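Lab notebook, design round three. We kept the backbone fixed and only want residue identities now. Task for the bench partner: fill in a sequence for the structure below.
Input C-alpha coordinates:
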Protein backbone atom coordinates (compact mmCIF):
# COMPACT_ATOMS: atom_id res chain seq x y z
CA UNK A 1 0.00 0.00 0.00
CA UNK A 2 1.51 3.34 -1.00
CA UNK A 3 1.75 6.17 1.51
CA UNK A 4 0.68 9.46 0.04
CA UNK A 5 1.61 12.82 1.55
CA UNK A 6 -1.06 15.50 1.31
CA UNK A 7 -0.09 19.15 0.92
CA UNK A 8 -1.85 21.96 2.78
CA UNK A 9 -3.52 23.07 -0.46
CA UNK A 10 -4.56 19.59 -1.64
CA UNK A 11 -8.09 19.89 -3.09
CA UNK A 12 -8.69 16.11 -3.05
CA UNK A 13 -8.06 15.97 0.69
CA UNK A 14 -10.70 18.63 1.25
CA UNK A 15 -13.34 16.30 -0.23
CA UNK A 16 -12.93 13.89 2.69
CA UNK A 17 -11.36 16.10 5.36
CA UNK A 18 -12.69 19.65 5.37
CA UNK A 19 -11.06 21.86 8.04
CA UNK A 20 -14.12 24.12 8.31
CA UNK A 21 -16.38 21.16 9.00
CA UNK A 22 -13.96 19.82 11.61
CA UNK A 23 -13.70 23.26 13.22
CA UNK A 24 -17.47 23.26 13.53
CA UNK A 25 -17.32 19.89 15.29
CA UNK A 26 -14.77 21.13 17.84
CA UNK A 27 -16.28 24.57 18.34
CA UNK A 28 -13.48 26.73 16.92
CA UNK A 29 -14.66 30.25 16.29
CA UNK A 30 -13.60 33.88 16.06
CA UNK A 31 -11.70 35.23 19.04
CA UNK A 32 -10.27 31.87 20.14
CA UNK A 33 -6.65 30.77 20.56
CA UNK A 34 -5.77 27.54 18.72
CA UNK A 35 -2.77 25.24 19.18
CA UNK A 36 -1.95 22.89 16.29
CA UNK A 37 0.54 20.25 17.40
CA UNK A 38 2.11 18.43 14.47
CA UNK A 39 0.82 21.11 12.10
CA UNK A 40 2.83 20.10 9.03
CA UNK A 41 2.65 22.82 6.41
CA UNK A 42 -0.57 24.25 7.75
CA UNK A 43 -3.53 22.23 6.47
CA UNK A 44 -5.40 23.11 9.67
CA UNK A 45 -3.30 26.01 11.01
CA UNK A 46 -3.89 28.30 8.02
CA UNK A 47 -7.70 28.03 7.96
CA UNK A 48 -7.70 28.23 11.78
CA UNK A 49 -5.81 31.53 11.54
CA UNK A 50 -8.46 32.86 9.16
CA UNK A 51 -11.22 31.59 11.46
CA UNK A 52 -9.99 33.01 14.79
CA UNK A 53 -9.21 36.43 13.31
CA UNK A 54 -6.18 38.68 13.36
CA UNK A 55 -6.60 39.62 17.02
CA UNK A 56 -6.11 36.01 18.20
CA UNK A 57 -3.28 33.54 17.81
CA UNK A 58 -2.68 30.18 16.23
CA UNK A 59 0.30 28.36 17.70
CA UNK A 60 1.70 25.87 15.17
CA UNK A 61 4.40 23.34 16.05
CA UNK A 62 5.97 20.66 13.87
CA UNK A 63 9.22 18.73 13.96
CA UNK A 64 9.73 19.35 10.21
CA UNK A 65 11.45 22.73 9.77
CA UNK A 66 10.75 22.69 6.01
CA UNK A 67 7.01 22.27 6.66
CA UNK A 68 7.11 25.19 9.12
CA UNK A 69 8.89 27.29 6.47
CA UNK A 70 6.16 26.47 3.91
CA UNK A 71 3.46 27.35 6.45
CA UNK A 72 5.14 30.69 7.20
CA UNK A 73 5.55 31.49 3.51
CA UNK A 74 1.87 30.79 2.84
CA UNK A 75 0.81 32.81 5.88
CA UNK A 76 2.89 35.72 4.61
CA UNK A 77 1.37 35.46 1.11
CA UNK A 78 -2.09 35.60 2.69
CA UNK A 79 -1.21 38.40 5.09
CA UNK A 80 -1.91 36.22 8.13
CA UNK A 81 0.06 37.72 10.98
CA UNK A 82 -1.55 35.74 13.80
CA UNK A 83 0.35 32.46 13.37
CA UNK A 84 3.20 31.77 15.77
CA UNK A 85 5.00 28.85 14.12
CA UNK A 86 8.03 26.98 15.32
CA UNK A 87 9.90 23.84 14.55
CA UNK A 88 10.38 21.46 17.43
CA UNK A 89 9.32 18.25 19.10
CA UNK A 90 5.80 18.26 20.46
CA UNK A 91 7.07 16.26 23.44
CA UNK A 92 8.92 19.34 24.70
CA UNK A 93 6.81 22.09 23.12
CA UNK A 94 4.51 24.18 25.29
CA UNK A 95 3.73 27.12 23.00
CA UNK A 96 2.12 29.08 25.82
CA UNK A 97 0.86 28.37 29.33
CA UNK A 98 -2.85 28.52 29.98
CA UNK A 99 -3.61 30.53 26.85
CA UNK A 100 -5.27 28.19 24.33
CA UNK A 101 -8.97 27.53 23.93
CA UNK A 102 -8.26 24.45 21.79
CA UNK A 103 -5.24 22.21 21.31
CA UNK A 104 -5.58 20.13 18.18
CA UNK A 105 -3.90 16.96 16.97
CA UNK A 106 -4.74 16.69 13.26
CA UNK A 107 -3.98 13.08 12.34
CA UNK A 108 -0.72 13.21 14.29
CA UNK A 109 -1.12 11.74 17.78
CA UNK A 110 0.02 8.32 16.55
CA UNK A 111 3.20 9.91 15.10
CA UNK A 112 4.64 11.33 18.33
CA UNK A 113 7.42 9.42 20.11
CA UNK A 114 5.68 10.01 23.46
CA UNK A 115 2.01 10.83 22.83
CA UNK A 116 1.30 10.83 26.56
CA UNK A 117 3.77 13.67 27.08
CA UNK A 118 2.29 15.60 24.17
CA UNK A 119 -1.14 15.28 25.80
CA UNK A 120 0.26 16.46 29.15
CA UNK A 121 1.83 19.45 27.35
CA UNK A 122 -1.56 20.23 25.82
CA UNK A 123 -3.01 20.39 29.32
CA UNK A 124 -0.39 23.02 30.27
CA UNK A 125 -1.12 24.99 27.08
CA UNK A 126 -4.89 25.05 27.57
CA UNK A 127 -6.92 27.53 29.56
CA UNK A 128 -8.84 25.83 32.40
CA UNK A 129 -11.94 25.92 30.19
CA UNK A 130 -10.03 24.73 27.10
CA UNK A 131 -10.50 21.59 25.05
CA UNK A 132 -8.27 19.04 23.39
CA UNK A 133 -9.29 17.65 19.99
CA UNK A 134 -7.78 14.49 18.51
CA UNK A 135 -8.61 13.84 14.87
CA UNK A 136 -7.05 10.58 13.78
CA UNK A 137 -7.18 7.71 11.34
CA UNK A 138 -9.65 4.90 11.97
CA UNK A 139 -7.87 1.62 12.64
CA UNK A 140 -8.96 -0.11 9.47
CA UNK A 141 -7.23 -0.82 6.16
CA UNK A 142 -7.48 1.92 3.53
CA UNK A 143 -5.60 3.17 0.48
CA UNK A 144 -3.63 5.87 2.30
CA UNK A 145 -2.61 7.04 5.71
CA UNK A 146 -0.18 5.45 8.14
CA UNK A 147 0.28 1.68 8.34
CA UNK A 148 -2.53 -0.05 10.20
CA UNK A 149 -0.24 -1.21 13.01
CA UNK A 150 0.72 2.43 13.75
CA UNK A 151 -2.85 3.72 14.08
CA UNK A 152 -4.56 4.17 17.43
CA UNK A 153 -7.94 2.65 17.99
CA UNK A 154 -10.55 4.98 19.43
CA UNK A 155 -10.28 3.07 22.70
CA UNK A 156 -6.50 3.48 22.89
CA UNK A 157 -6.63 7.19 22.05
CA UNK A 158 -9.43 7.69 24.56
CA UNK A 159 -7.43 5.99 27.34
CA UNK A 160 -4.36 8.09 26.56
CA UNK A 161 -6.36 11.31 26.63
CA UNK A 162 -8.01 10.36 29.92
CA UNK A 163 -4.61 9.44 31.39
CA UNK A 164 -3.42 12.94 30.47
CA UNK A 165 -6.02 14.52 32.74
CA UNK A 166 -8.93 14.99 30.36
CA UNK A 167 -12.52 13.86 30.48
CA UNK A 168 -13.99 12.71 27.19
CA UNK A 169 -16.73 15.05 26.00
CA UNK A 170 -17.50 13.36 22.68
CA UNK A 171 -16.33 10.72 20.23
CA UNK A 172 -17.61 10.76 16.66
CA UNK A 173 -16.80 9.90 13.09
CA UNK A 174 -15.22 12.74 11.16
CA UNK A 175 -15.65 11.70 7.56
CA UNK A 176 -15.02 8.32 5.99
CA UNK A 177 -11.48 7.77 7.33
CA UNK A 178 -11.23 9.51 10.69
CA UNK A 179 -12.60 9.75 14.19
CA UNK A 180 -12.67 12.83 16.39
CA UNK A 181 -12.32 12.84 20.17
CA UNK A 182 -13.01 16.03 22.11
CA UNK A 183 -11.76 16.23 25.67
CA UNK A 184 -12.04 18.76 28.46
CA UNK A 185 -9.80 19.21 31.48
CA UNK A 186 -10.99 17.06 34.37
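Proposed sequence:
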Amino acid sequence: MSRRQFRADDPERRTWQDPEEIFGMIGLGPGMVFGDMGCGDGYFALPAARKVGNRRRVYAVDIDADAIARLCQQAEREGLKNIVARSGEAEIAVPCEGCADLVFFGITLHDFCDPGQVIRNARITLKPSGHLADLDWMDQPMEFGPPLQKRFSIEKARRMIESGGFGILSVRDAGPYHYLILGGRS
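Keep this in mind before ordering anything: The chain has a mean pLDDT of 92.
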